[in-house]
């Protein structure tokens, strides 16, 4: 059986000044310790990446960014490249978050281009997918996920996706306090793994970590992590407070699957 090391990732969105970010990261490093049974990543805003990288340097906590642009460099005011993120200390990058899709016109096609740039730039992408409330109510959850994965991962080969992380984030659960039930999460994760199997073979499907995201808190992480295909969490609000985030990390380590 393939062992997938759980990943708990914190998406700080547009929160934290440099000083605040350094403060939270410093406390996080002090509190999480070094356990081999899970991985921890935080994705602060761009301005805080480099100062936070210095804090994380000797620690097992990894650094991620919240987006990137696919061009290497050029006259693209306001954008940031894979090489810039890597030079700031990032090893992960979140791609296709629903807030990017919703507020910044991101599409499955642009997600695909960003993924290509991330992989070429040796960053590990966390590809976010998930249906809206209306899509779920209309019975379209699977067809939405199918399209997001097929177009998002178009023209990739299995060898490109060895480190890929997928995050299932139902839009209706993000920042709403409404978490998917563990069986809703398991059903979607199982379906996503099946899509990976069809597209890229058994090994990629079995090794890819599929995170759940959407109102993850210390109170629901154990139940979610007890599901066979839930391999960690992408945490928004609860990752901004060091106490709740470390509690989520601690409970993940304690969950038996
Ligand atoms: P939330 O956000 O935990 O605040 O719901 C999750 C996310 O957007 O990744």
Give the helix/strand layout:
Blueprint: E1 7-11, H1 18-32, E2 39-43, H2 46-56, E3 62-65, H3 82-87, E4 92-95, H4 98-103, H5 108-120, E5 124-129, H6 133-137, H7 141-152, E6 165-168, H8 182-200, H9 202-207, E7 209-213, H10 218-225, E8 232-235, H11 242-254
Parallel strand pairs: 1-2, 1-8, 2-3, 3-4, 4-5, 5-6, 6-7, 7-8
* Principal-axis shape: globular
Strand tally? 8
Uncertain parts: none
Order of helices and strands: EHEHEHEHHEHHEHHEHEH
Helix-residue proportion: 40-55%
Instruction: Describe the sheet with the most strands.
Output: 8 strands, parallel, barrel
Q: How would you classify the helix and strand content by structural class?
A: alpha/beta
Helical segment count = 11
Instruction: Give the overall average pLDDT.
Output: 96
Distance between the termini: 12 Å
- Beta-strand proportion: 5-15%
**CA gyration radius, whole angstroms:** 17 Å
Ligand inventory: 2-phosphoglycolic acid
Report on the structure:
The chain has 257 residues and is an alpha/beta fold. 44% of the residues lie in helices and 14% in strands. It has 11 helices and 8 strands. Strand 1, helix 1 (18-32) and strand 2 form a beta-alpha-beta unit. The site of 2-phosphoglycolic acid has 13 residues, from strand 8.
């Amino acid at each position: 059986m393939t062992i997938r090391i759980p990943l708990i990732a914190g998406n700080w969105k547009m929160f934290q000044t440099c000083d605040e970010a350094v403060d939270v990261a410093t406390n996080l490093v002090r509190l999480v310790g070094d356990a081999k049974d899970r991985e921890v990543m935080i994705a602060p805003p761009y301005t805080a990446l480099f100062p936070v990288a210095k804090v994380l340097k000797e620690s097992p906590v990894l650094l991620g960014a919240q987006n990137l642009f696919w061009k290497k460099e050029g006259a693209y005011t306001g954008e940031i490249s894979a090489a810039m993120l890597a030079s700031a200390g990032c090893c992960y990058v979140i791609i296709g978050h629903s807030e990017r899709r919703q507020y910044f016109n991101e599409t499955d096609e642009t997600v695909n281009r960003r993924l290509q740039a991330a992989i070429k730039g040796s960053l590990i992408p966390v590809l976010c997918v998930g249906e809206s409330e209306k899509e779920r109510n209309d019975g379209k959850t699977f067809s939405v996920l199918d399209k997001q994965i097929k177009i998002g991962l178009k023209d990739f080969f299995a060898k490109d996706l060895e480190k890929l992380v997928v995050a299932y984030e139902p839009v209706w659960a993000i920042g709403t306090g409404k978490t998917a039930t563990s069986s809703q999460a398991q059903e979607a994760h199982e379906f996503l793994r099946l899509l990976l199997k069809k597209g890229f073979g058994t090994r990629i499907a079995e090794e890819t970590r599929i995170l759940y995201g959407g109102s993850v808190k210390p109170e629901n992480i154990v139940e979610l992590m007890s599901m066979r295909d839930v391999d960690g969490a992408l945490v928004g609000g609860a990752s901004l407070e060091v106490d709740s985030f470390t509690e989520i990390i601690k409970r993940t380590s304690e969950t038996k699957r």
